[in-house]
Amino acid sequence: MQLDFFPSRTLTLYLAKMFVARILAVLIMLVLVLLALDLLAATGDILAAPGNGQAEILEYASLRTPQLASRFLPYSVLLATLITLVTLNQNSEVVAMKAAGLSAHQVLAPLLLTAGLVALVSFAFNERIVTRANATLKAWEAAEYGPIPDLVGEAGGVRFNVYLTDGRNILSAGTLTGQGKDIVLTNVSWYDRAPGGIIREQVRAERATFAAPGWRLENPVRFDVASATTTDLPVMVVGETLSPARIDLQSIDPDALSFWELAETIDAFEVAGRRTEEMRAKWWHRLSGPLSALLMPLLGSVAAFGLARSGQLFVRAIIGMALGFAYFVVDNAALAMGSFGGYPPFLAAWAPFFLFLLLGETVLIRTEE
Description:
- InterPro entries: LptG (IPR030923), LptG/LptF_permease (IPR005495).
- This is Lipopolysaccharide export system permease protein.
- This protein is of the alpha+beta class.
- The chain has helices at residues 9-48, 54-90, 93-99, 104-142, 244-250, 259-271, 277-299, 313-339, 345-368; strands at 158-166, 169-177, 184-193, 199-210, 215-218, 221-224, 229-232, 235-238.
- It contains nine helices and eight strands.
- Strands 1, 2, 3, 4, 5, 6, 7 and 8 form an eight-stranded antiparallel beta sheet that branches.
- Helix 1 runs parallel beside helix 4.
- The two termini are 15 Å apart.
């Protein structure tokens, strides 16, 4: 038995089923509670749009549910780990398994296997569902929960709240459709700024198209800040250094792209000589994020061992919870540092994972093996 990593088939299935049931129970509880709180905050804005009703509230809930499930799945695995191991310990099942010759790693093996499968499911779920929900929900929020085009999230589709810089000047648009020279901007604002960043004039237009070079504003209205006067113009060309390729790059939303699409976007940014640290850190985190579920049984394993009658079971559970939540804190901090260029993207995404993997193994080996 000591030469086998997994215990018997019966015991493996027993522990795996117990673990999966608790993961689902905790995840459903967390998603329902958080979704209810989110709906309390967002329902007023949804119903404020003309024509919206219960169907739109349900649509919002359907878009937020995948986001919440993806974000809190690792937390669910952590809490399910603690609940499972504490239950096994209280019922003296861990004592029975160790008396039968199983090592601490063999006791945890079914939970680690289950967590690995959860990580794979989480990655596929993020790529197929969460990215599309991100794109659609951001577009809907940008449209103030009004009607949105059907092309959101597709190649060459619609992007919202585009913010572009042309030197010290700024070009913003409510929506962007098309690609390349066929790009059309709507609800456009052009800000002409002085060297100190002070706005000299603001130009608004309903529509802008590529003028080769620059962007032609149709029926623009110019407001001069110094004189506080408004002027209607027949046509105006702005942003002559903003090429269609540059606009395509600047209007990218990494959270709305799949793993492979984000890799292609990073390559395009590098060819254009643009900064890619933030996107590359998020690209690596697409892998390390779901794998965090694999760490949770290891970090929570401190709750599995030690006699329940010693009175330290609750303390052990708190220690396991603290280790798990410490990982999430360090992971978010490292990802933020990687996005700002403080850490290399690979290190920002993977250093917390390997750090807590070694920490969990060290604690397990020194205390139980």
